[in-house]
Design a protein that fits this description.
- The protein is mainly alpha-helical and about 400 residues long.
- It has two domains: about 300 residues, no CATH class; about 70 residues, no CATH class.
- The chain contains 14 helices and three strands.
- A three-stranded antiparallel sheet has the order 1-2-3.
- The two termini are about 25 Å apart.
Length: about 400
């Protein structure tokens, strides 16, 4: 009986979504994106589109394997842009009316007159919206799996992790959309508040990324600067000792004991030492000043959904640390032409540490706290629905 009632509510909500045609429009667009993937390839010269090849420095089979190219393309563009931006927006537009239309129309009174718990009614409606996204991701991932298998000869089952990851990502936004839709009975208000909430999360993530990158860059520059100071001190000390020895009479040069120069003498003999020390001090001050701000952003993010870190989990599954390091090395080589060797090494090391810091964030902090947010918002919305008069 319970299963029959739930299935009836579920099918009714699905028919409502299907009538809007956006499900099939989104499905068609996903098919076009996969078809574009199928046209793309990589060879020894560069990236190919059908029969045309674009020569791109650093992007060919000498630097990236076909397997790595397609996995990166799926993760960065397929998931990072299509599923978690465009398809998510279409999904929100499609599913946002579910709750407001239900509570604003006369259908809610008819449904509540039946022997079905209010909590089950609301949660079934909510799950219908999540199923909409799950079907979209499943079709897109399955088609991409076939394309990568046929084009690169690699049947990467890890691609299917995109389904729970993207559905979790969508649930962060949809629970807010459902709550606002319930409280306001307005689809427009639900969409606007959800988009604003999403934009706030984007700004918070951008602030986290920028602060982490700048702080890490300053730390790397300070470490490398300290190492350069040490080398310059040792080199200048040897030069001063050699100079003093050369000034002695020739018969005393081999036997005389030359005292080590003082630090003041060494710095006077090489002005670059003082300049480099000042650079190190500036970088250390910058890193220290940014540290409390970055901690504050992380504290704020702890209570909120982590959208960027959630999608980053797919990179953890698909791209190993060795592949990531290789990609960073290739990127360093690509920018070496426009930067000095010292700056290139510092930038590459800072980027490597920044990405590693993000990858090292625990699963509980990323998914556990994010899903806790979803649970709290959903629980409040369910309680409000059970207590509200219609």
């Amino acid at each position: 009986m319970i299963l029959t009632q739930t299935t009836a509510i579920f099918l009714d909500a699905y028919r409502e979504l299907n009538a809007k045609k956006l499900f099939w429009i989104t499905m068609l667009l996903s098919g076009l994106v996969v078809a574009f993937f199928a046209l793309l390839g990589i060879n020894e010269r560069g990236v190919s589109i059908a029969t045309y090849t674009m020569e791109i420095p650093g992007v060919n089979t000498s630097f990236v394997s076909q397997e790595g190219f397609y996995k990166t393309l799926f993760s960065s563009f397929g998931v990072g842009i299509w599923l978690t931006w465009i398809a998510t927006i279409l999904g929100l537009v499609s599913t946002a009316p579910l709750i407001p239309d239900f509570v604003a129309s006369g259908s809610v009174e008819l449904t509540l007159s039946k022997p079905i718990s209010r909590a089950r009614i609301f949660l079934t409606k909510l799950l219908t919206g999540l199923l909409f996204m799950a079907l979209q991701v499943s079709v897109f991932t399955g088609a991409s799996f076939l394309v990568i298998g046929l084009r690169a000869g690699v049947w990467e089952l890890g691609l299917f992790w995109a389904i729970p990851i993207v559905v979790a990502f969508f649930s962060y936004l949809y629970c807010v959309c459902a709550l606002v839709g319930l409280l306001t009975r307005s689809t427009i208000a639900a969409l606007l508040v959800t988009i604003l909430f999403w934009f706030f999360l984007f700004l918070l993530n951008a602030g986290d990324g920028a602060l982490l990158a700048i702080k890490t860059q300053a730390e790397v520059e300070a470490e490398r600067g300290s190492a350069r100071v040490e080398r310059m001190v040792q080199g200048t000390s040897r030069e001063l000792v050699a100079l003093r020895r050369s000034q002695l009479p020739e018969d005393e040069r081999e036997t005389a004991e030359i005292p080590e120069p003082t630090l003041e003498e060494i710095e006077a003999g090489n002005l670059r030492i003082t300049q480099t020390r000042e650079e190190v001090a500036r970088n250390e001050r910058l890193a220290r000043s940014l540290a409390p701000w970055h901690r504050g952003v992380l504290i704020a993010k702890t209570a909120l959904p982590k959208t960027s870190e959630t999608t980053e989990f797919l990179n953890r599954v698909l791209i190993s640390q060795a592949e990531l390091d290789q990609a960073m090395d290739n990127q360093a080589k690509a920018i070496q032409e426009r930067m000095s060797e010292r700056d290139t090494g510092a930038e590459a090391e800072a980027q490597r540490r920044t990405q590693q810091a993000v990858r090292d964030r625990s699963t509980f902090w990323v998914l556990g706290t994010s899903l806790t947010f979803v649970f709290v918002v959903t629980a409040f919305a369910t309680w409000r629905f059970t207590r509200r008069d219609f």
